[in-house]
Design brief:
two-stranded antiparallel sheet, mainly alpha
Length: 199
């Protein structure tokens, strides 16, 4: 496959068929996806019927912990023919829309508009109470090794933005670094002793 020059790619000047053809090449040759040429479709009124089809044709894609979505290659959500479907991770799905959807910018603007006026940042007191209620009966304490591993895996390859790095740096200014103080060590020791007494 010839490398796609995304810098100079003008999707607005391409026909839908040309975009689909280019997208399919990318899905197969870059993302390694297995596209199936079948005219089977889901005509039920169920809005997620296409997922049932995808699970039938690509059951292995839905195994494992990572959530998957079913992408309509021609960006037409009513075209539920198997040959127009592919299973992607959410990250891949976002990438495909960013690279090949001529209406992606408009889509992003619509999402941005829909979020206007919604609270950002810390929860309100009411929100905090709801979260507290929901977590009341959940076990507290240290994470299991399995959970720690899942968290570790989910953070691999992620990096902080420069803005986040700056915030972290600002928040730790003036705080002691290095070995714990004696007072802190004693508090940790007492806490651990209490934990072992309750077992």
């Amino acid at each position: 496959m010839e490398e796609i020059d995304f810098e100079n790619l003008d999707l607005k000047s391409m026909t839908p068929e040309e975009i689909v053809s280019l997208e399919k090449e990318y899905l197969i040759n870059v993302l390694g996806k297995n596209l199936i040429d079948s005219e089977e479709r889901d005509d039920r009124k169920n809005p997620t019927g296409y997922r049932v089809l995808a699970m039938k044709y690509w059951p292995e894609e839905f195994e494992g912990e990572e959530k998957k979505c079913v992408h309509h290659i021609d960006f037409n959500h009513s075209n539920n023919i198997v040959s127009n479907l592919v299973v992607l991770t959410y990250k891949e799905h976002k990438l495909i829309h960013r690279l090949f959807d001529p209406d992606y910018e408009e889509y992003c603007n619509n999402i941005s508009e829909s979020q206007k006026g919604k609270p950002k940042g810390p929860c309100s007191e009411e929100c905090k109470k709801k979260i507290s209620e929901a977590l009341k009966d959940k076990p507290k304490g240290p994470c299991s090794e399995e959970h720690k591993n899942k968290l570790s895996e989910s953070h691999k390859g992620k990096t902080h933005t420069e803005e986040t790095k700056k915030k972290i740096s600002e928040s730790t200014k003036g705080k002691p670094k290095g070995p714990c103080s004696e007072e802190h060590k004693n508090k940790l020791s007492e806490s651990l002793k209490r934990k072992h007494q309750h077992k």
